[in-house]
Write a structure and sequence with these properties.
heterodimer; A: mainly alpha; 2 helices; 0% strand; elongated; B: 479 residues; alpha/beta; eight-stranded mixed β-sheet; four-stranded parallel β-sheet; 10 helices; 24 strands; 25% helix; 25% strand; binds flavin-adenine dinucleotide
Chain lengths: 42, 479
């Protein structure tokens, strides 16, 4: 994507590769949860 | 016994009501007044607006929830607020009976969301105009019907023009419009109709991917990736045309009139358009003890409730003053009145404002997303509880501190769906805390596209409806 202003074939592959996306789902969920939960302590 | 009245039962009002009801509902009188008797999970109206989700899957009745949480529910439209000490009440018109009723309060939380100002752009909107909207459930249903009828025309071989974006030079909520457009793209692909439609993103943002928050910036592999670059790639990849720096000034049947930053005027033709209107505050009457209009003590000219922000700074000053953003959402003149969600008046834009040579201001107004609205609802509720129980407030959170996550789906399939996941901290750049030109935490901030986002969007729909129903464990789900 950088420079070419379009997603590369490799990027598109990873976007839909289910096992990798499962990993991203876990990472993103934890990231969002931890960040949002911090706000509850205020 | 204190009387707390919450106006509105959207993201902000419902969050506030649940905290109030759960924590002090047995000892004090908590009342929610709302002109709708259902909670609507607004983010999923994107899918309703194209026939991918049934409207009833996005709503639930409020009364049974409130009965469990010691909250009184009044199904009525508020028309007047009487804020003067000694005689504080609101006037509401009950839906159904049409009866006008007075309701006294000790604490008032105004969480009445946006007034959708279609009239601000002649010809805009699904009722008296030519464009569609997904900002209310009936409007999303109307948009769906028109979109599906358009698909029928495409099936017969007709080529059509679809325009999605902002319908007023000062509109906000670009994220929802973006999500609707990319969902249309995906839906047309699946239907085998993509080659029959020309898709255009028409927006008042200063650049692509701005979303009214001055864009999103993240650090990836040691480089800064900006949402401008990212969204441009999405559009290029999907064959979606784009035109930013554009304020829509008028709509006629099949024609959108606009002006851009250069002051040029132009017309864009369309067969189907979904354009977000300008948001204003609800047009309540604010009346003093002597019958005078006290609105200047409570709201700004756009009708948003003035709170503990620093107003009147220039854009450049505001960009360097994160503490100008309110922390407690409390009206300075009437300290027992709070505003939560879209109802509060921000101190200024987050995106760079622009006025063209014809004196037309084209500026993306600051969004107060669902997550932001929920957080403010909680802060306000906890402070009202503090005031009732301890006499002083202990909670605060500014938009220049808040983290926000947004997921813009591209199709709702859990198998081959896709979504852009955006995490941003803080929503409003805070250059005093984060010493980079963007004023953002580049470690937490995140921008990514993939199937995982579609799963998250699906999960959020269900977990948030669970939360807003106040079902077991709801407090564990962050706003
Ligand atoms: C299509 C769409 C998709 C979106 N997607 C996302 C997303 O994915 N993520 C995200 O974070 N945000 C999203 N948003 C933004 C989010 O929906 C809003 O930020 C949020 O709804 C604002 O909450 P609120 O409580 O301030 O207002 P609202 O949700 O609008 O609630 C206002 C409440 O006030 C009531 N009310 C209004 N007038 C009166 C009156 N006179 N008397 C009594 N009651 C009244 C209404 O009935 C309603 O209950 C989206 C918005 C749209 C339109």
């Amino acid at each position: 994507m950088s420079g070419s202003q379009e997603f590369s074939k490799a990027e598109k592959f990873w976007m839909s590769f289910k096992l990798y996306q499962l990993w991203r789902f876990i990472v993103l969920s934890i990231k969002v949860y931890i960040a949002a939960v911090q706000s509850k302590w205020k | 016994m204190a009387k707390v009245v919450v106006i509105g039962s959207g993201f902000a009002g419902q969050t506030a009501a649940l905290y109030l009801g759960s924590k002090i509902g047995k000892k004090h009188e908590i009342t929610v007044v709302s002109n709708r008797d259902v909670f609507g999970y607004v983010p999923s109206w994107v899918w309703v607006g194209m026939g991918h989700m049934k409207p009833e899957q996005t709503i639930f009745k409020l009364k049974p929830v409130y009965d469990r949480k010691n909250i009184r529910f009044v199904h009525a439209a508020v028309t007047e607020i009487h804020p003067d000490p000694g005689d504080q009440y609101i006037i509401e018109t009950e839906i159904g009976s049409g009866q006008t009723v007075r309701l006294d309060y000790d604490y008032l939380i105004i969480a009445s969301g946006p007034f959708l100002n279609y009239a601000g752009t002649p010809g805009l909107g699904p009722e008296n105009g030519y464009t569609h909207s997904i900002c209310t459930l009936p409007h999303a249903v109307k948009a769906r019907d028109a979109y599906l009828a358009l698909c029928e025309r495409m099936r017969k071989g007709e080529k059509v023009k679809i325009v999605v974006g902002t319908g007023h030079p000062l509109a906000t909520c670009q994220g929802a419009a973006f999500e609707y457009l990319v969902n249309i793209h995906k839906d047309l692909l699946k239907k085998g109709l993509r080659d029959k439609a020309d898709l255009l993103w028409l927006s008042n943002e200063p650049e692509l991917g701005d979303f009214g928050v001055n864009g999103v910036q993240i650090k990836r592999n040691g480089h800064i990736l900006r949402s401008e670059e990212f969204i441009r790639s999405v559009f290029n990849d999907h064959g979606i045309r784009y035109q930013v720096q554009t304020g829509v000034t008028k709509v006629e049947e099949g024609k959108i009139y606009w002006q851009n930053y250069q002051g040029e005027e132009g017309v864009t033709e369309f067969d189907f358009a979904m354009l977000i209107p300008q948001f204003k505050g609800q047009p309540f009457k604010y009346i003093g003890k002597d019958g005078s209009d006290v609105s200047s003590k409570l709201v700004n000219p756009a009708g948003f409730v003035v709170v503990d922000a620093i107003y009147g700074l220039s854009y450049e000053e505001l960009a360097q003053t994160p503490e100008a953003w309110p922390a407690r959402y409390q009206n300075p003149n009437y300290p027992n009145i709070f505003a939560a969600g879209i109802a509060f008046a921000p101190p200024g834009p987050i995106s760079k404002p622009f006025t063209n040579k014809n004196n037309l201001a084209i500026t993306a107004s600051p969004p107060r997303t669902g997550m932001v609205s929920g957080m403010i609802g909680r802060v306000v509720a906890m402070n009202v509880i503090d005031l009732i129980e301890k006499g002083s407030m202990t909670h605060e959170e500014r938009m220049s501190e808040m983290v926000v996550a947004c997921i813009a789906s591209m199709g709702d399939s859990l198998w081959d769906g896709n979504a852009v996941t955006i995490v941003m901290r803080p929503v409003v750049p805070n250059r005093k805390k984060y010493h980079n030109e963007y004023g953002r935490d580049l470690f937490i901030s995140h921008l990514e596209m993939g199937l995982a986002g579609a799963w998250m969007k699906f999960m959020l729909h269900h977990t948030f409806i669970w939360k807003f129903k106040g079902l077991p464990g709801w407090t564990l789900i962050p706003e």
